[in-house]
Amino acid sequence: MALFSLPLSLPCLRTPLAIPTKNETSISSPQTLVPDQKLVISGGLKLSGHAQISGSKNSALAVLAGTLCCSDGPSLIRGLPDLADTRTMAEVLVSLGAKVEEMGGGDLVVDARELSSVEPCEDAIGRIRAGFFVLGPLVARFGEAEVSLPGGCRIGARPIDLYLRGLEALGANVQLRMGKSVFVPQMGEDLLGLISILVSQV
Question: Which domains does the chain have, with CATH numbers?
Answer without folding.
Answer: 57-197 (3.65.10.10)
